[in-house]
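Q: What does the assembled structure look like for these inputs?
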Amino acid sequence: MAVLVLADHKDGGITQPTRSTVAAAAALGDVHVLLVGEGAAAAAPAAAKIAGVAKVLTGAEAPVLAEPLAALLVAMAPGYSHLLAPASASGKNVMPRVAALLDVQILSDISGVVDADTFIRPIYAGNALATVKSSDAKKVITVRAASFDPAPAEGGSASVEAAPTAADPGLSTFLGAEIVKSERPELTAARIVISGGRAMASSENFAIIEKVADILGAAVGASRAAVDAGYAPNDMQVGQTGKIVAPDLYIAVGISGAIQHLAGMKDSKVIVAINKDEEAPIFQVADYGLVADLFKAVPELEAELAK
Amino acid sequence: MDFALTPQHEALQEAIGRICADLGDDYWLMRDRQGGFPTELHQALAKGGWLGVCMPEDVGGAGLGITEAALMMQTIAQSGAGMSGASAIHMNIFGLQPVVVFGTEEQKQRMLPPLIEGRERACFAVTEPNTGLDTTQLKTRAERRGDRYVVHGQKVWISTAQVAEKMLLLARTTPAEQARKRTEGLSLFYTDFDRSRIEVREIEKMGRKAVDSNQVFIDGLEIPVEDRIGEEGQGFRYILHGMNPERILIAAEAAGLGHLAVSRAAAYAKDRVVFGRPIGQNQAIQHPLAECWMELEAARLMTMNAAWRYDSGLECGAQANAAKYLAAEAGFKACQQAVMTHGGFGYAKEYHVERYLRESMIPRIAPVSPQLILSFVAERVLGLPKSY
Amino acid sequence: MKVLVPVKRVVDYNVKVRVKADGSGVETANVKMSMNPFDEIAVEEAVRLKEKGVATEIIAVSAGPSAAQEQIRTALAMGADRGILVEHDGVLEPLAVAKILKAIVAKEGPALVILGKQAIDDDMSATGQMLAALLGWGQGTFASKIEKDGETLKVTREVDGGLETVSLKLPAIVTTDLRLNEPRYASLPNIMKARKKPIETVKPADLGVDVTPRLSVLKVEEPAKRQAGKKVGSVQELVEKLRNEAKVI
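A:
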């Protein structure tokens, strides 16, 4: 039986976490990709080109709400053994609802596929990895993108069809969105991430790491402590309760390295820590540690990189 | 026999722990360097109703016992606040017990709510420069003139006198030679700290810079009769009433400070690698810390035993004194060991343990010396003849 | 309106959990347990709604071992009015908890259920959405702001890249994100009052709910440890290493 991947798309493209989800799904069967929401049709060609995708289905061009989307996925579920989505804000919103409607237990945020019934998922902020076997007939899954190399963006030639429709239960209405426009890459897809912690001391001070980010083409993240203190918005949060990232290079600036934060970035390939506290736990996971005052070191870093 | 904390005790520790967690090590390091009363802690505790932990419910307190107050003080000290935090509120927790027990209804309603709500802070003006622990020989004189008393004299080691709005004062109302008994002739007052008639000189000291200690010179302070607690001449007896709870609380604070030091030292010993292994793998590091932990736990249990006896209305003098002795000595030893475990860094302020060591002298010295406790136990528990 | 707030007993967020040697799970004996932090935010939001006069009664419910009463007491000390403990000693997966909560909702008739967005032990982030599905209610997950507007609830949600606002028909489900509020500390008078508030205890079977797990845990293991690297002495050295040794820039 085929497997269905609910895709995140943006500006006519398919997000990298979705391609990672396709990679995870490919081990389970023929991959069909569902695109819904404004811009779904425009993103269909990109989805069709992803290596390993057999079919692309496009749904309604309207703001995505959990309730009608869940109804649609449930309507489509009989044709699929597994329903997957990236563990993004939208995947985490809708997939548990789908699972409950199908009377199955969701498998959230999987980091490995053992077989069609058995999956690995991190628990306790990634301090333990559980291998779990589902006894449910159908599996509903969200995928930790950082754990799977994304399926190549090119190489596929899937057919594109219209998705079936399902009635909107009419429980909610979309009022609006404020999406921050940024030239920088998405946190979960960036090759380089530079994050600030509580030691940044103010939201204005994030400007110094943004300058470095711009030189490196990096995304900007923040620790939960910095978000809690109001220095950075929540969608920049890296950690157990924020985004999970695994870039080639992660630069932690003024971040002590609470368990909670490490959970979100410790799979990065190379970790750099800049902290004035020599004892900070972040140094225990860092490949390169620099004990220094960030307000001195970060501008120096900017100057050095600009050379 | 049940040694378990109740869920309510755990809730208390949790809530206090959270309040204290807002004031981290850096805060206390700064306070220790610059001085200045830890208003943030005092106000946060007042806001949560904690200053009334063992005050009666009808004046806005929680009506709990010294057991709960001791748990609270231990939690504060152990949070990293040490004696800098504990001493900032110590007096406000138990010090007004004489008012609770011997005050009139009018006095209780007038004096206690502002203290519990954190609008007023009280200092405890008992000790004098020339009498030491021989409290019955106090010289500060309060002379009755119509509806007021006029006070002249000196007090020393008066904590928080720089910031207090109120003072619990013990002063002589009958000259010693005219008093019927040694323990009579002193009266107790709770009154405004009128700075136009009181001069306060801070004493520079070894530790706990945040909570000031002072010499106090009282020159013509007028106290209305309605600020006298209980009967004239019975003040010493009233003060004695608060002595055991005070020993219990200071024991809890000392145990908390000691546990703080041991946990810091253990954490350091786990991380610090010398000669290719953590220093905590060496028994020379492990054993002294283990010994400190055991002694602290023993002292803490004695403290809880004394608190339980006090709250149950049982005689607790021996246990309260023993708790204060054991906890103070164990606390000091633990702080000293924590500095030694850190080696050179233990001597550096930013590792905090040297502050704990300086503060650990306070519960050894105050409110009564270890020697006097030994004499008390020898005399009252073992029935040996009085030695002084 | 009545508000129901589920609270979960979890290993305290400050505890670094250890995997059991036999790989059967993580060590939870003699470990400090607390209320799930996101559930505290949920309780706080309910208490604020009550203070504004929007909520009339707050019921804290926990499904778990009898010790979960402590977390209910914490909720009561924060301002919830009464508690329900659904006592069960084994594993409770989000689907089972959602079914239990559905039965409680049928009994109590709340107009709003506020849940934490995620429990920090199993990190499933699912119970709220599952409960919404089972009840056929609308859901406002990862909320950073909620406002009641007549018979609807306006929920601002944290989504990738920013915020989104939806309007939900009541009754509805909300799950809390970090910035919804900052939970208060229980005050002493409220801890005292909480002692006297009632906690009712029921069993899943009393509610007619089958809580048999759907997942079997084959093993639990520690993730690969990361080795601490080296300290560099200067920014120049750092950039040189990143360019020539790690080759990531």
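The mean pLDDT of chain C is 95.
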